[in-house]
Design brief:
- The chain is an alpha+beta fold and about 550 residues long.
- About 40% of the residues lie in helices and about 15% in strands.
- It is built from 18 helices and 13 strands.
- The strands form 5 sheets. A 3-stranded antiparallel β-sheet has the order 2-1-3. Strands 6-9-8 form a 3-stranded antiparallel β-sheet. The chain has a 3-stranded antiparallel β-sheet with strand order 7-12-13.
- Helix 2 crosses helix 4 and helix 14 packs antiparallel against helix 18.
């Protein structure tokens, strides 16, 4: 088959990895994923961060459908639609009525346990845009288009702009200038991928792009590094893939006052799309955001071996970019910006920043949009108070600041009941989220006391590295806390005596922190036992124990 006649349709060809109900790994098509989502446990690609990218791609498809039509495939009142699903909005559209219709759509789908035929009708309408080859190759541009949008000295024939397969594969992340020391692939196989894996990485790379590369699209300003690199993601994991997709299917958002026309990248005219990306315009709808490109990509094939050539696009301003529902936020003088993770955050478990996810900081913390959505669904009765909500986070952390290659991947989660996370107690001081945050702050204070004790022990040895020693002891202590705290958090109910449950955690905390402190005493040398002046490891231990008892009293 010539490359001109080659096809790989993402709708019908297998390329998405999933785990089935028996924990068997399968590779299935987009059509199969959406038809059988309730029979798959989860996405199961090469990395959790890759799974998040594919999840957002699937959500972009579903949002493009159900922000236009109801569960029966009928356009919402006030919307008319052509055979390419392009919508005309009635100027008299009542947005509140539209929200009610979307609510009914969500409820009908959720209770039915499957997506309607409209999803597959939509994919059929855009089938030509989901071919990885051909005139409208998925997430790609043609040769002439590429050359028309970069400087002449960067045209494809010059050999500029090449990005190696081993760099697109984020499990390797190796450029031609710097070898990856601990690569999972040998040199002979770093640039080799099966077609389905290559597709997954091409899509993933758009979300986790560094700033390396010498080719920029004409008119480009500040270079985009890939949007998911710029946020600290949070999403919901359901009991199966269908539930995961539904719980993250935010058909409308907090403070939304008008209809947002869904427009994923495959629905755009490429010329107009590139103009938007060069100007750095913030996407105004979720399907566009979930499929946003950080590079224009041309792929040249020599048999089964691809050569990828890319041009950099502009970043968009993240300040107050509330269109993004899957991030936590931080407030500075410019406004709200998405939080990002650093390498120093790798060992900090998600639960230790509980307040960032649920908004317990006296109104200053902006709740992630996905948490607002869950609260909305619970308040409307679509989710029961007994529903276990699993908030998850996955992504990549930038290493080298110059190239912004990924240095590490993170994944974490915690489970909490809906009636606890969205406790409606009118006595604000008694609301579970506030009490949980107080417990976490107390836990951190106890951790600081252990850290100080470890530092003092190190100083008895005349150690110049007392800080690093104390940091290691502290990190080990928090690692030991993770499992019991997550168990305690998952055990909470809204009808429990809050003080009794908090005392339960205090007892666990005291036992664990004193085990850590006693271990330092048991491993002490004659130098620490002898000490300095009237201070030795025993007096330090007694003082630490007394302080912790006071903190927990």
């Amino acid at each position: 088959m010539t490359m001109k006649n080659r096809h790989f349709n993402l709708i019908t060809e297998p390329w998405i990895k999933v785990l089935d109900e028996n924990y068997q790994e399968l590779t299935v098509s987009m059509e199969e994923v959406l038809k059988n989502a309730r029979h798959y446990r989860q996405l199961a690609g090469e990395m959790r961060s890759q799974d998040l990218v594919i999840l957002r791609l699937l959500l972009a498809v579903l949002l493009s459908v159900y922000q236009r039509v109801n569960a029966d495939g009928e356009p919402y009142e006030g919307l008319t639609m052509d055979d390419r699903w392009q919508v005309t909005v009635d100027p008299d559209l009542d947005f509140e009525d539209l929200i009610e219709e979307m609510q009914e759509t969500w409820q009908t789908l959720y209770e039915g346990g499957e997506f309607s035929q409209a999803v597959f009708d939509y994919l059929k309408a855009y089938e030509d845009r989901f071919d990885f080859f051909g005139e409208h190759a998925f997430y790609q541009v043609g040769r002439e288009f590429y050359d028309a949008h970069v400087p002449a000295k960067k045209w494809i024939k010059t050999g500029n702009g090449k990005v190696a397969v081993k760099e697109i594969n984020r499990r390797v992340s190796e450029s031609n200038n710097s070898a990856a020391i601990f690569s999972p692939r040998s040199n002979g196989f770093k640039n080799r991928l099966s077609l389905d894996e290559f597709v997954r990485w091409v899509i993933t790379y758009q979300n986790y792009t560094g700033v390396s590369g010498k080719t920029s699209v004409n008119g480009m300003n500040d270079v985009s590094k890939g949007w998911l690199y710029s946020i600290s993601p949070v999403y919901v994991k359901g009991a199966n893939l269908f539930e995961t997709l539904m719980l993250n299917l935010t058909l409308f958002q907090d403070d939304q006052e008008k209809y947002r026309y869904p427009k994923p990248v495959w629905e755009w005219n490429l010329e107009i799309y590139i103009d938007h990306r060069v100007e750095g315009l913030v996407p105004d709808n979720l399907p566009e955001l979930y499929t946003v490109l950080s590079r224009i990509t041309y792929i040249e094939w020599n048999g089964d071996y691809p050569t990828t050539i890319q041009g950099k696009l502009s970043r968009f301003d993240e300040v107050n970019a509330f269109i993004e529902p899957m991030t936590t936020w931080r407030l500075d003088k410019k406004g709200y910006k998405p939080r990002t993770k650093q390498l120093s955050d790798l060992r900090i478990a998600m639960w230790r920043n509980f307040g960032d996810y649920v908004g317990t900081n006296d109104g200053e913390t902006r709740v992630p949009g996905i948490v607002w959505w869950l609260n909305y669904l619970t308040d409307k009765g679509f989710l029961t108070q007994e529903t276990n909500i699993n908030l998850s986070s996955a992504g990549m952390i930038v290493g080298d600041e110059k190239s912004q290659m990924p240095a590490a991947e993170f994944f974490d989660d915690f489970t909490i009941r809906a009636d606890v996370l969205f406790d409606p107690d009118p006595l604000v001081a008694q609301r579970w989220p506030r009490r949980i945050e107080e417990v976490i702050e107390l836990t951190k204070k106890v951790g600081e006391t252990l850290h100080y004790f470890a530092k003092e022990v190190a100083e008895l040895r005349d150690s110049n590295g007392s800080g690093s020693f104390a940091n290691r002891i502290s990190a080990e202590f928090y690692d030991q806390l993770n499992e019991p705290f997550l168990g305690w958090l998952a055990s909470l109910r809204n009808d429990q005596d809050r003080d009794e449950k908090i005392m339960e955690w205090k007892k666990t905390l005291y036992s664990l922190v004193m085990q850590a402190a006693k271990k330092l005493v048991q491993e002490s040398s004659p130098t620490e036992m002898r000490g300095k002046d009237s201070t030795n490891i025993f007096t330090l231990y007694n003082a630490t124990q007394l302080k912790i008892r006071k903190q927990l009293s």
